[in-house]
Specification:
Blueprint lengths: L19 E2 L5 H11 L3 E6 L2 E7 H10 L18 E3 L4 H11 L3 E5 L5 E6 H5 L5 H4 L14 E3 L4 H11 L3 E6 L2 E6 H9 L16 E3 L4 H11 L3 E5 L7 E6 H29 L4 H10 L3 E6 L4 E4 L1 H7 L3 H4 L14 H14 L1 E9 L5 E12 L6 E9 L1 H15 L9 H18 L2 E9 L2 H8 L1 H15 L8 E6 L2 E9 L2 H13 L5 E3 L2 E3 L3 E8 L6 H17 L4 E4 L4 H21 L2 E10 L5 E12 L3 E3 L1 H11 L2 H22 L5 E5 L2 H4 L4 H12 L6 E5 L8 H14 L2 E7 L6 H6 L4 E4 L1 H4 L6 H16 L3 E4 L5 H9 L4 E2 L8 E2 H16 L1
Parallel strand pairs: 1-2, 4-5, 7-8, 10-11, 23-24, 26-28, 28-29, 29-30, 30-31, 31-32, 32-33
Antiparallel strand pairs: 2-3, 5-6, 8-9, 11-12, 13-14, 13-17, 15-16, 16-17, 18-20, 18-23, 19-20, 21-22, 25-26, 25-33, 25-34, 26-27
Helix pairs in contact: 1-7, 2-6, 2-7, 6-7, 9-10, 16-17, 19-20, 22-24, 24-25
């Protein structure tokens, strides 16, 4: 038995088209789809993901157990999990997977899991070229003797039950001395016909028969010639007595089993032959034919005697082109004379040589191969031959280089990464210590980079980082190292620093690179940077100390207003410690329930009647006292604690609403502000739902306030979350309107109930012409869109009167009420209101 040596991949096979249905579709619709496209399997897809598969066999089993399956949704009947295989996998791996899982279909996917098609066991076998093997096998040893029989009057369910019980794909049908056959495909046709109809009209009567004496190859050709999957098997060519059924599955299984078994045997023979250094070229022919490695055999003078098909595939030279020539035909000219001398010395002394060698293909391309040369000498023969076995490792070498680059260089900017920077810093410190030379480390951190990411999206943020890297490279001297540590953090290592003025000049040069704006997404974006500098040995002698001090100096630069540089000073450590202390205190504040809600009233603009309140977060620290949000919210966002704080606010607000609903008649809304990080968080809707259900409050009294920056970078996801909140009954307000992008399309595409005009506009009305017109326009636009308007920051009677004249809906500000504790708010507004109402 000869095996094809081509390295077949799944993508080399002819795939069947993959047809899809939705999980809610009834079985009858899916069956019709199978018949329309004449396929034996349908994939069930939900949200672009294949979640199940439905085959003819599944249909038969379902019909066998429950006759009334046609109206059931396919989700309840489909087979899961779905078994997939990469299109770059070996075809043999696909065959093994089918055999191991006892399945007949695999969904072929690309690297990104996109479904490409359906691969069946028949598709795999069709690529093996093993027809000659089937000519050696008789049908009598491979068909199914236990084929169930049914009567022509039986219905689809009876037929399906027989198939399922015997685990077969066909049954014989008897009708008044006549015999037919019904397959799984026929069962599908029966299920689509009138319920309870007998099976005889659906049976194939003109049956193709073979005898036990025929070969599997004859049967295989008949199956393909007639386009069928089953043959009746008779006792002999003379006798028409039916003994059973032969299916394509029997043949495919035999081919695959034989292929894997034979390949394993051939490879084992190859290894034994090489280890024993036997000269038996007849046995070597089998090894050579089956090997995926290129093999070349030469005589003692180097004349090529034999090559295998893999040699041709790897080098491009056919056997006819190289036989009688020497291996020099492959020489790339890369290696010098000493390389080949060392090779032949190893062969003469040890009888074997292994190593990497660069050769040239027929088309002129060079490639790297791993070559093993073995000296073969028969004890009864003085002739000497050499066997060269090689594998193309060009891609592996390229992958190794890529892995090395990924290990030491930043993939986005191409700059050295943290690992390489530390390696070079370690070398620089050792050199500086020996030569008594100074060096400097700069930490370069972009100011407000998160705002660019949140407002314009991560792709724009990545482009900004690449442009920044190019500008910073203009500041790097020969021998210095510019690296990206991650995010928006860059570092610059200055070697052999003469004096501090040299470092300062470099820092000023870096700052100058940020003066011109950056062109991003068709916009001119201006961004600054904060720089921290540590000098060796003045600010530390170890890598850890220098990096820490440069980081501390950088944060000091941010604290002093950003867009500047700071040299490390010992006093900065105190500020760093304060920052760490604050971080720890925020975490403890959540545990110790130190946060508190303050409320600011929201009133009807015309009547000044209380209509609601905005919840404002305060932190009552036992040691620090009352801490304003501006002091801890940015740090909480940086530490990733803001979502936990948001959850506390949501839960506490719902508890307050429950208290109002139980003890008063107050029905106003309570507004809470959500962080941008939480809006698109996967559990926001669940958190709100749980809080509402836990406290039994009316969702209509809860209002979520968001800003434009919180959804600008992930609009679709934000819209989905807001729609889910609206389904609960929660109201949505757009805060700080007018200060961001204020794109009108957002107002029509997002489920917004209310606009809150930013206080910066209200502060300048009615005196300033431009602001007054903007406020008037916002209120008029909101009215036309059926949106309510809240004017924030109302502090003067003239401002209130101006807004009344514009028919503004609600106002909020110190004129109407300052933020106060829950107790004070209840005493001033809620309970008096409840009393007067009652």
């Amino acid at each position: 038995m000869q095996l094809s040596t081509r390295d077949y991949k799944v993508k080399d096979a002819k795939l069947s088209a993959l047809h899809f249905c939705m999980p809610h579709q009834p079985a009858i619709a899916v069956i019709k789809l199978m018949r329309t496209h004449n396929v034996s399997a349908i994939a069930i897809r939900e949200k672009n993901k294949v979640i199940g598969i439905w085959t003819e066999s599944d249909c038969v089993r379902a019909q066998a157990h429950n006759g009334d399956v046609l109206r059931q949704p396919i989700r309840t009947l489909m087979s899961t999990p779905v078994h997939t295989i990469s299109d770059d996998s070996a075809l043999n791996d696909a065959a093994n997977k089918c055999a191991t899982l006892a399945i007949r279909h695999l969904i072929v996917v690309a690297d990104d899991d996109t479904p490409l098609g359906l691969l069946s066991l028949a598709d795999i076998v069709g690529n093996q070229g093993l027809d000659h093997y089937l000519n050696l096998k008789l049908i009598g040893d491979h068909f199914d003797h236990r084929v169930p029989k049914v009567q022509g009057s039986d219905n689809a369910r009876v037929v399906a039950q027989h198939m399922a019980k015997s685990n077969t794909h066909a049954v014989l049908v008897e009708q008044q001395q006549h015999v037919g056959i019904i397959t799984a495909t026929d069962v599908l046709e029966m299920m689509l016909a009138a319920q309870g109809q007998c099976c005889w009209p659906f049976a194939s009567k003109e049956l193709v028969t073979v005898s036990c004496e025929d070969t599997l190859l004859h049967a295989y050709r008949l199956l393909h010639q007639h386009g069928i999957r089953h043959l009746l098997v008779t006792a002999s060519k003379e006798s028409q007595r039916v003994k059973g059924v032969l299916t394509l599955k029997h043949i495919n299984t035999e081919i695959e089993s034989a292929y894997l078994s034979e390949l394993e045997a051939v490879l084992a023979e190859r290894d034994c032959a090489l280890q024993a250094s036997q000269k038996d070229l007849y046995l070597a022919n089998k090894i050579i034919a089956a090997s995926l490695d290129g093999i070349m055999i030469t005589d003692a003078q180097g004349t090529i005697l034999q090559v295998n098909p893999a040699f041709t595939r790897l080098t491009g030279y056919s056997a006819e082109e190289v036989l009688g020539k020497t291996p020099r035909i492959l020489s790339s000219g890369t290696h010098d004379r000493s390389f080949y001398q060392a090779m032949w010395q190893s062969l003469s002394q040890q009888g074997v040589w292994q190593g990497e060698i660069c050769n040239r293909r027929k088309d002129g391309d060079t490639y790297v191969e791993w070559l093993t040369i073995i000296e073969i000498k028969d004890k009864q023969d003085s002739d000497l031959v050499y066997a060269g076995i090689f594998t193309d490792i060009t891609e592996r070498k390229a992958s190794e280089r890529k892995i090395t680059k990924l290990a030491y260089f930043d993939d986005l900017t191409g700059l050295p990464n943290r690992r390489l920077f530390k390696d070079r810093l370690s070398v620089a410190l050792a050199h500086g210590q020996r030569q008594h030379q100074r060096l400097a480390i700069m930490f370069i951190d972009l100011d407000h980079f998160k705002g660019v990411n949140d407002s314009l999206g991560h792709s724009v943020g990545d482009e900004l980082l690449k442009q920044v890297a190019k500008r910073l490279q203009r500041c790097v001297r020969s021998g210095d190292t510019l690296a990206r540590l991650g995010g928006d953090e860059f570092t610059l290592l200055l070697n052999e620093v003469a004096d501090i003025d040299e470092v300062i000049a470099c820092a000023e040069k870096v700052l100058a690179q940020f003066k011109p704006s950056f062109s991003l997404a068709g916009q001119a974006i201006t961004i600054t940077t904060s720089i921290g500098i540590a000098i060796y040995p003045d600010d530390g002698e170890s890598m850890e100390t220098l990096l820490k001090h440069a980081d501390v100096a950088m944060y000091r630069s941010k604290d002093l207003g950003r867009n500047s540089y700071q040299l490390f000073k010992a006093t900065m450590n105190a500020r760093s410690l304060e920052r760490l202390t604050m971080s720890s205190r925020i975490k403890q504040a959540l545990v110790n329930d130190e946060f508190e809600l303050f409320l600011q009233p929201i009133v009807d603009c015309q009547t000044t009647q209380l209509c609601g309140a905005e919840a404002l977060l305060r932190w009552q620290d036992p040691q620090l006292g009352m801490v304003a949000p501006g002091q801890f919210i940015p740090l909480a966002e940086e530490l990733g604690l803001i979502i936990d704080i948001d959850k506390w606010v949501i839960t506490r607000s719902c508890a307050l609403l429950a208290q109002w609903q139980q003890h008063t008649h107050f029905s106003g809304t309570l507004s809470i502000n959500l962080s941008a990080a939480h809006l698109c968080h996967h559990d926001l809707v669940d958190t709100v739902t749980a809080a509402i259900n836990e406290h039994g409050v009316s969702a209509e009294q809860l209002e979520i306030e968001i800003t434009e920056s919180s959804f600008i970078s992930s609009f679709s996801q934000a819209r989905e979350v807001l729609l889910a909140l609206k389904l609960l009954g929660v109201k949505v307000a757009l805060d700080d309107f007018g200060t961001g992008y204020s794109a009108l399309s957002y107002l029509t595409k997002l489920p917004i109930d209310k606009l809150k005009v930013d206080s910066s506009f209200i502060a300048k009305v009615p005196d300033e012409y431009g602001n007054s017109e903007i406020v008037s326009a916002i209120i008029a636009m909101a009215s036309s869109l059926n949106l309510l308007v809240v004017a924030e920051g109302v502090e003067k009677p003239c401002q209130h009167q101006f807004l009344q004249g514009l028919a503004c809906d609600y106002v909020q500000g110190f004129l109407l009420g300052e933020p106060c504790s829950i107790t004070d708010f209840n005493n001033r507004y809620v309970y008096p209101c409840a009393t007067s109402t009652s």
